[in-house]
Fold this sequence. Notes:
Elements: H1 3-18, H2 26-41, E1 45-51, E2 64-70, E3 79-80, H3 84-89, E4 95-99, H4 102-108, E5 117-123, E6 127-133, H5 142-147, H6 149-222, H7 231-259, E7 268-271, H8 272-282, H9 284-288, E8 293-298, E9 307-310, H10 312-328, E10 333-341, E11 347-353, H11 360-363, H12 387-397, E12 401-407, E13 411-417, E14 452-456, H13 460-471, E15 476-480, H14 483-492, E16 499-502, H15 511-521, E17 527-531, H16 538-545, E18 549-552, H17 557-567
Parallel strand pairs: 8-10, 14-15, 14-16, 16-17, 17-18
Antiparallel strand pairs: 1-2, 1-6, 2-3, 4-5, 5-6, 7-9, 10-11, 11-13, 12-13
Amino acid sequence: MNTNNLITDISFLYELSLSVGQSLDKKENCKNFLQTLMSRKNLEFGGVWLYNYNIPYSSKTTGYTAIYSHPQIKLDKIDIEDSFFLDHCFENQDSFSIPLTLEACKAIGFKKKETGVITCYKLQNLGFLVLYSSVHDKIWNRIEQRKLKNVIDKFAVSIKACLFHEKSILDLITISKTQKELEKAKKEAEEANELKSAFLSNISHEFRTPINAIIGFSNLLADSLIDKSKHKDFIQNILNSSSKLMKMVNNLLYVSKMDSNQLNFTLEYFNINETIREVKAHLKTQISNKPQVDFRLVFPRNSEELQIKSDRDKLIQILENLADNAIKFTKTGKIELGYYIDDNSTSIFYIRDTGIGISKEKQAHIFDVFRQLDYEANRKFEGSGLGLTLCKKLIHLLDGEIWFDSEENIGSNFYFRLSGTGSVKMDLLNKITSKSSDNLSTIEDLKYSEKNILIAEDVRSNFNYLNAIIELTDATVIWAKNGKDAIQICDDNNPKIDLVLMDIRMPEVDGIEAIKQIKNNNKSIPVVVQTAYAIDNEREECLNAGADQFITKPIDPRKLIKILQEYL
Length: 568
């Protein structure tokens, strides 16, 4: 090697060394190094690829990413897969220089199938560097490749420093972000804990209040010194408190079951107007306690025969919870419960009131579990805070949606549909007048003096209750204290059994097996299941066993009479 070439090489390597590590930004570092190298070697392309697992917070664990290339247009893609071609070329050597082939183009992601020469260097265990020249005979021999070895190693060390710096910055950002997220989560957890504590304190009060009334008035009924003329009021108080307690228990169970995805639904056709009238009948006591509130049912014209396919019991529960709230928060004025048919022939149910309304800051949270308008010990309104949460969950279970609009001290409108989407809005109730279609139907007295009804029930008090209701119809009641006796009585069929009220949890033979055997021997006998376990989705199991109908404890006399009317 002559002196001039040696001086030239030393000058080039010195300049190239100075370009290494001028920046802790990996792209800027690559740019300084590659542009110096390319300009002195008359190269047309240079690029740096790193293994993805070396790049901080990369979502990829295999393959390579081009972190810098010049000019960029030469690359078809910056992400390339692990390459057998490159592995083979780097086998037992840190660099190689070869003609550019189609295989090489594919391996390094070149956009065009070009000719020329590529020279590649390993960047220690980080990745590799590619240099390209279109001159066909510009293959670097091993001596030329080794000249750059030390500088390339220093460049690799500088890339490591850049990656370490980048990771440190990202770690700090992540720590800061995580800290903020933790602080947010802590705040939300503390708020949730406060809400839960307030809920538990409140629910304890809400449970004890009706229980206290039930026990208290029951004791008064048993006291022989109390004037019997007051017994009627005592009984009404017991009934009202029992109904309130049952609603709270059902709401708690339903929310719990839905959160654990254990609640199913049954779709069937039923009459809408009749269902809404039944809701009003259930609310009779609450409505009578608000004489200054005009409670109306509003139906579309010519809708008496209109039916909907959904879960009737869950629709009733949704409407009752929404109506309970409207009655609770409305001191004077009007409440409307009804529905209308939208342009898509979908029933839009609504409950509108002239109550206290909901403030803007509380509107975003009213469907959250444990949320209530007030939590203080001296709060004005009773309730568990589960009603709206349950409504939303049930409506979503039925593939529907719920929405509302409200104005503080003006009133609230709640709407929902049981399928489909598309919110609508009406003016608040006290700003308009509307016509009522409130025609509450009554059930006629039924007489079944020639009918025989079998009650399969192992608990005496439950049998006595059902017997007391059925006696009003003059039907003959037969008692089976377990499933085995029920099967035998139906097999004998003497006297002829016209209907069976079947409990599920019984000794000897349970209700499910009893239904199967009764229906196997005599399909014509109607079997109505009466159980306290409806929340556990036994309805489908009972119907599959052959049951004709299903009624849930505590049994509403009106529902039982309606079933008797249907089957007798």
